[in-house]
Design a protein that fits this description.
Length: 204
């Protein structure tokens, strides 16, 4: 269950509506080649991707157990949330059109805020692509969806994620109990970054 950032921003009605509009209408191919909004046709490939504990193990907000039914519900819920302008569930396809990863962006338009979760297929991990992909996605979320604040969490032992997030300039702000869909919790490192900080870092 994604939770909004600890820092609470208040968006004006027009800012919140612009964010909702962006989430509903954005061409996700602008994030990169092979990016698509997740649809029911992707369910079998998503089940295969997420059934691998090397992929899904570190992620707290996935449906469990991972099977055809739960992933179908998850995709449909995300489609409804996308229509409301409050989430984007994306798949990334490789050159063979196989699902090579996924990203879920949760958006709180009233707070001009977003959170990102995602994973890449096990055979693609640890090659430097994930860190680069994360940084690219953070910039896209700020500049294309228009939010002013992002928060992230990662398991205390998820060194790869922590390195990638620190390297992108996110500020550690203590820990957080991330709540899984079944109500159990996971202690997590917690970060925030504002759009202004991101722009300063990239001199935009
Ligand atoms: C997290 C994930 C997206 C990172 O992508 P990746 O391609 O595997 O990571 P990278 O190869 O870019 O490595 C990221 C950093 O970890 C380092 N790293 C890679 N493998 C490592 C290892 N086994 N031990 C310690 N550090 C490692 C890299 O050197 C890099 O650090 P640097 O930026 O200082 O060079 C990917 O591993 C993944 O999908 N993991 C499973 C799901 C997950 O954890 N999702 C994130 C939840 S918050």
């Amino acid at each position: 269950m994604s939770a909004p950032p600890k820092t609470v921003l208040h968006a004006s009605a027009s800012e919140a509506e612009a964010i909702r509009h962006a989430v509903r209408t954005v061409d996700v191919a602008t994030l990169g080649p092979g990016r698509e909004r997740a649809e029911l046709k992707h369910v079998p490939a998503l089940v295969a991707l997420l059934s691998d504990a090397r992929v899904s193990g570190p992620i707290y907000d996935l449906p469990r157990p991972i099977d055809e039914d739960s992933v179908t519900r998850w995709v449909v819920e995300n489609q409804a949330q996308a229509l409301a302008g409050e989430a984007l569930l994306l798949v990334s396809l490789d050159a063979d059109d196989a699902v090579a990863g996924y990203s879920r962006i949760t958006v709180w338009p009233e707070h001009s805020s977003a959170e990102l979760a995602g994973a890449v297929r096990a055979d693609l991990q640890g090659r430097g692509q994930g860190g680069v992909g994360m940084a690219h996605t953070f910039g896209w979320i700020f500049e294309t969806l228009g939010v002013r604040l992002m928060c992230l969490t990662a398991a205390l032992d998820n060194v790869r994620s922590q390195k990638g997030i620190d390297a992108a300039g996110f500020r550690r702000m203590g820990e957080r109990e991330a709540v899984r869909p079944d109500g159990t919790t996971r202690r997590s490192v917690y970060w925030e970054l504002t759009r202004d900080e991101w722009r300063q870092r990239h001199r935009l």
